[in-house]
Specification:
Shape: elongated
Distance between the termini: 103 Å
Helix content: 10-25%
Structural class: alpha+beta
Number of helices: 5
Number of strands: 23
Radius of gyration: 31 Å
Strand content: 25-35%
Length: 363
């Protein structure tokens, strides 16, 4: 009987310990779920309030209990805290500044955790100059973006800051912005990427994204990009289907052709061009020195090994050309072109935008 009582107590104790562990685990999970990381505020900017003051602004950061403003200290060679803002505060004015001097700022969010401020990373830096109306050094006010025809077709091109960037309330002739450098970003890099020179590269995925440029003081402008991958046309609206070997290329080897054209669209390089061939021993030569060249090796081999009429694949910064011969002398041949920066609108053998064929002798 005593043993049964002892055993019952032991089981009861184990059950209590297990229940306590489950409760503790649930509480820990709840605590973890509630303590989401605090993020730095977005859309940080700075503008001139007066000749001796600057106004720093930012957007609300989710879960933040307040914000910390940092200013760059040249002597300390780092950003130092200059103000702590409350949760509902979205701006702060830095006063008693020297006129004609450039100031740099960053903003961080913080959340109170057990009585201590848990800070986010600092935001990107913004800078502005305090200046008079006749000063020649001013802050950026407007970013003007435009897209040329290449952009509208979803092909690589440049987005530029226009010549009409103005200073804030300035009467000086030919004012100079303190920094004309822009920071570029894409809302979806799977659709289009942009480098820090403002050059956009369309990716394989089709869709819409926004390219944003940010000036030194946080002023932003964005442009909508509708990306269409012309290397993979859904149809060939200008082609009547009357060329036997063209038909084979666009049916049996359709995906291989599209994959190769897409590859050289994304990996276009002004200094890279060449011809890919297969020798008598089955070795393929002429690949460009790209790290990701393996993506198309199977497609190239499939075409060159199984469709012997295609003897060469020429690539350059603006085109991919599939060269077909009908006799061993090469006197009878045809080529299918994909031109990245040309819609082939004037080509007699037009297949689709950017695609055309040229036949040099009857089939």
């Amino acid at each position: 009987m005593d043993n049964k009582k002892k055993w019952g107590k032991a089981v009861q104790m184990i059950s209590m310990l297990f229940l306590a562990a489950v409760i503790s685990c649930c509480l820990s999970k709840n605590a973890m779920a509630k303590s989401k990381p605090v993020m730095p505020p977005e859309n940080v900017s700075v503008q001139m309030k007066s000749v001796t003051s600057l106004k720093i602004k930012w957007n609300k950061s989710e879960n933040a209990d307040g914000y910390i403003i940092y200013k760059y200290n040249k002597r300390a060679k780092k950003y130092v805290r200059v103000h702590t803002a409350k949760k509902n505060q979205r701006s702060w004015v830095d006063k008693n500044l020297k006129t004609g001097k450039v100031y740099q700022y960053k903003v961080a969010s913080y959340k109170m955790v057990k009585g201590k401020k848990k800070k986010s990373k600092k935001s990107y830096a913004v800078s502005a100059i305090t200046h008079t109306k006749r000063s020649k050094k001013v802050n950026a006010l407007i970013i003007s973006l435009y897209a040329n025809s290449e952009n509208e077709m979803g092909i690589c091109s440049d987005l530029l800051i226009s010549d009409d960037v103005l200073g804030e309330d300035t009467k000086a002739s030919d004012p100079v912005v303190i920094s004309d450098k822009l920071v570029w970003s894409s809302s979806d890099e799977s659709i289009a990427k942009v480098d820090q020179n403002g050059r956009v590269t369309a990716m394989e995925k089709e869709g819409t994204c926004y390219i944003t440029a940010r000036a030194h003081n946080g002023v932003k402008e964005k442009i909508k990009m509708n990306i269409v991958n012309y290397a993979r046309p859904k149809s060939f609206p200008y082609y009547n289907g009357g060329k036997e070997y063209v038909n084979i290329m666009l049916t049996d080897y359709r995906e291989n052709v599209f994959n190769i054209a897409t590859y050289f669209t994304i990996n276009k390089n002004e200094d890279v061009w060449g011809t890919i061939k297969m020798d008598d021993e089955g070795n393929i030569t002429g690949y460009p020195d790209f790290d990701n060249i393996a993506e198309i090796e199977e497609d190239v081999r499939t075409i060159l090994a199984n469709f012997p009429l295609v003897t060469e694949i020429f690539y350059s910064n603006e085109r991919v050309e599939f060269f077909m011969k009908y006799d061993k002398y090469g006197s009878s041949y045809c080529r299918i072109d994909y031109r990245i920066d040309d819609d082939m609108s004037d080509a007699s053998g037009r297949l689709a935008p950017h695609w055309a064929y040229t036949q040099f002798s009857p089939m």
